[in-house]
Amino acid sequence: MATENIIYIIDVTxxxxxxxxxxxxxxxxxxxxxxxxxEMGVFxxxxxxxxxxxETNYLNANLELVELGAMKRIRLGGWMRAxxxxxxxxxxxxxxxxxxxxxxxxxxxxxxxxxxxxxxxxDIIEMMCEAVDTAKKYGAESIGxxxxxxxxxxxxxxxxFGKAAKEHGADRIxxxxxxGYDDPFTIYERVxxxxxAVGIPIELHCHxxxxxxxxxxxxxxxxxxxxxxxxxxxxxxxxxGERAGNADLVSTILAVKKSSGFENKYKLDKHIDLRQxxxxxxxxxxxxxxxxxxxxPAVGENAFAHESGIxxxxxxxxxKNYELYDYTEVGRGHIEVIExxxxxxxxxxxxxxxxxxxxxxxxxxxxxxxxxxxxLELVRYxxxxxxxxxxxxxxxxxxxxxxxxxxxxxVQP
Length: 413
Fold this sequence. Notes:
This protein is α/β, with parallel strands linked by helices and 413 residues long. The protein folds into two domains: 275 residues, Aldolase class I (TIM Barrel), CATH 3.20.20; 57 residues. The chain contains 15 helices and nine strands. Helix 1 links the parallel strand 1 and strand 2.
């Protein structure tokens, strides 16, 4: 398999990030995130669960948006258990699906503690291969196979698992540090040996239980590249995810682009545009209702703040004295306008005059009042759907793609 030794980003906010306990995203918010991820140059968005019925309209509508050219380059990938019946159901509910990740647990702990001894190791291999074959039969164009709890799986078994997946046509193996158990040194060695033995690209999927998700992701990617295969790092915006979260999208990109061991030595996907960082992180924060930590790299309130005399003096003389990268590189260079006084917003009880006033502010035009009323009705639904004020980009999306917006917001049993 041809390799260019490139590190690609697969963002899993819309699959793993939304599993954050007590939090979640409305389908419209997931769609806007997909659009933003596309603008940012992210290779793939794991956009949801094809076998989950309340996702069906959203998933199909987002695939329509790809066909309509609303998303220019990003791949939309579905996550399914590596079980034949799940794969069949997923492709039947979402027939336009082209990219999938199929997941099954591989560690002894999971086989005993999760599957309760129902499956042997040979059963795990057989189920995975059957799932890959089924996805191929339904026309999948790319297949990633996830070894859940890879970090607690014997390396010999991981290699056997990877070789079997490759033989059946899998494109990548996802090394899942499901519990955040690995450290940067261990994951480098394990992934390098896995990649050398199997010879196909490796995805790194790291959780942050020990605070090392980003470090393990980039060193795992280094292991894959050093073994001669491409690497894919899975991330979430603002590090959202179960328990302590996943590898943060922006921090991971910065680590590859700016750290001493990676800068000008390892190649990040050339399509990545860090200038979109501020917008996507702020939107995710608003949507999840989780403030960005003040000390979050690049996008935290204090990321470019200097208070001590020595630091302030040095930064004023030359920003490179105390800043590895400029604030404009992450999209923070725009002027923020804070409105005061009278403010008309668009919400679930808006009238046509107020709505047209808001739309006019954003230079949105309608051919007549009838069209404006139809869009207003969708904007009202969006407000109910997200339970938040509608953002400018959400409104622009609804105006441009009303039928897809209608479908996305149609969640019913």
